[in-house]
Every structure is written in structure tokens, then in C-alpha cells.
């Protein structure tokens, strides 16, 4: 089998699959609502997760700074004990006060961070619980939905198997090229040329190209949209 018929069939298989996927993903209202809920939970969990990572990094940074501040304060206090001159004593007292202020300045945000992290962990647990319930409800209703769409589910499996069979007749580069076109060209990688016009991009094909296309041994891409073109 030459490549072009395989490509044409693969395109048709993708077209059918797309229709079936659309049926199978247009969920009834109750399922759609649960799906929205699940997505919202996931979004919030991701947000909380990011917040926790940031918070922990801040805790680590502030903890290091606090350790240093404590050492400096301790040093200032030791120094205070050794001072006997009145003038130097006042300066040493000021130094101790200053170090103490710095320590407090770090301890406060650390406490706040701990509270925030705890709240985030609590919220995450609550959401996780709600999510589990919603997922179970979704799965149950989805099973019913799929049972009601038994035919489409069976066709999807058949088409997926067919796609695999067709792709197995192509090289990896050919499969990759097809897939790239499919995603970049709105699901149409292979299109007909009708009355000298590419039906993918509606651009008129130049006559020399048309002639080449007529005798082509290998599939050719439209000069305008790069889709694989064939003569109807
Ligand atoms: Zn084109």
C-alpha cells in the first residue's frame, strides 16, 4: 500500500474520532457541574501548593537570618557584661537593644508564616476531602453516561485501533509530520484539491504544481498551507 491512501484513511479516521469525542465529552449538566467543581478544586490545590512552597522557602531564609541575629544578640550581651566604663556601657546597652529589636523583627514574620502555612495545610485537606467525594460522584455518573453511549465507546475503540494499524504502516517521521499538521491546521492534515483549489486553505494551486501533483509518487504539501493535498 502506498502512503497516500493510508494518509487519506488516517485523516478520515481522525475526523470520525473527533465527532465521537465531541459526543463523549459533551457531558450532561450534572456531570458537567461536577467536572467544573473538580477543576476548581484542582486549581485551588495548585495555588495552595505554590503558596506552601513559597512560604517554606521564606521560613528557611528567615530562620537563617534569625539564627544569625540571635548569635549577634548573645555576643552583644556578653560584651555588655565586660564593659565597666560608663560611656561604653551606654553604647553596649544600645547595641543589645538594637540586636533584640532585630531578633523580634524576624520572629514576628516567622510566626505569621507558620500560621499561614498551617491554614493552607488545613484548607488543602478540606478541599482534598471534597474533591474525593466529587470524584466518586463524577465516576459513578460517568459510568452511567458511558453505558448510555455504549455505541460511541465501542466505535471509539475501533477507530483508535484502526488509527494504530494505519500508523503502523507509516514511518515515525511520517506519523510525526501528520500529527504536527493535524494540530497546526485545525485537525485537517490531508485535504482534497477540487477545481484546482486546495480545500484546506482555499488557495488556487499553481498549474506546474498541479502537474507535479498528478504524477507525484510521494505525498505533496500545499504550497500555501503545507497540508498534504491529493486530487479528488
Ligand atoms: Zn492549502
Q: What attributes does this structure have?
A:
232 residues; mainly alpha; Helix Hairpins; 2 domains; four-stranded mixed sheet; elongated; binds zinc ion
- Overall SS class: mainly alpha
CATH C-level name of the largest domain: Mainly Alpha
Radius of gyration: 34 Å
Instruction: Give average pLDDT, whole number.
Output: 95
- The poorly predicted ranges are none
CATH architecture of the largest domain: Orthogonal Bundle
Bound molecules: zinc ion
Order of helices and strands: HHHHHEEHEE
| Physical arrangement of strands within the biggest beta sheet | 2-1-4-3
Q: Kindly give the count of domains.
A: 2
Query: What is the makeup of the main sheet?
Result: 4 strands, mixed
End-to-end distance: 19 Å
Q: What is the topological layout?
A:
Elements: H1 3-25, H2 29-82, H3 86-148, H4 150-168, H5 172-184, E1 190-194, E2 197-198, H6 207-215, E3 220-221, E4 228-231
Parallel strand pairs: 1-4
Antiparallel strand pairs: 1-2, 3-4
The chain binds zinc ion.
Zinc ion is lined by residues 198, 200-201, 203, 222, 224-225, 227.
Question: What does this entry look like structurally?
Answer:
There is one protein chain. The protein is built from six helices and four strands. By secondary structure, it is mainly alpha-helical. It has two domains: 168 residues, Helix Hairpins; 60 residues, no CATH class. The longest helix has 63 residues. The protein is elongated, with a radius of gyration of 34 Å. Bound molecules: zinc ion (ZN). The site of zinc ion has 8 residues, from loops.
Amino acid at each position: 500500500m502506498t502512503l497516500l491512501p493510508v494518509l487519506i484513511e488516517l485523516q478520515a479516521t481522525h475526523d470520525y474520532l473527533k465527532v465521537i469525542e465531541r459526543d463523549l465529552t459533551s457531558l450532561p449538566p450534572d456531570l458537567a457541574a461536577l467536572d467544573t467543581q473538580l477543576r476548581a478544586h484542582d486549581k485551588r490545590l495548585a495555588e495552595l501548593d505554590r503558596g506552601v512552597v513559597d512560604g517554606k522557602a521564606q521560613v528557611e531564609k528567615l530562620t537563617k537570618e534569625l539564627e544569625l541575629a540571635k548569635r549577634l544578640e548573645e555576643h552583644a550581651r556578653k560584651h555588655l557584661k565586660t564593659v565597666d566604663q560608663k560611656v561604653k556601657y551606654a553604647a553596649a546597652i544600645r547595641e543589645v537593644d538594637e540586636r533584640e529589636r532585630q531578633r523580634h523583627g524576624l520572629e514576628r514574620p516567622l510566626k505569621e508564616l507558620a500560621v499561614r502555612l498551617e491554614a493552607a495545610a488545613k484548607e488543602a485537606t478540606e478541599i482534598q476531602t471534597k474533591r474525593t467525594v466529587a470524584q466518586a460522584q463524577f465516576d459513578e455518573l460517568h459510568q452511567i453516561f458511558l453505558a448510555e453511549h455504549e455505541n460511541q465507546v465501542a466505535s471509539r475503540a475501533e477507530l483508535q485501533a484502526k488509527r494504530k494499524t494505519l500508523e503502523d504502516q507509516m514511518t515515525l517521521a511520517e506519523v510525526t509530520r501528520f500529527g504536527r499538521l493535524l494540530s497546526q491546521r485545525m485537525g485537517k492534515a490531508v485535504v482534497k484539491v477540487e477545481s484546482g483549489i486546495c480545500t484546506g486553505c482555499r488557495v488556487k494551486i499553481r498549474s506546474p504544481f498541479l502537474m507535479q501533483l498528478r504524477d507525484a509518487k510521494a505525498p505533496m504539501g500545499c504550497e500555501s498551507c503545507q497540508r498534504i493535498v491529493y486530487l479528488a
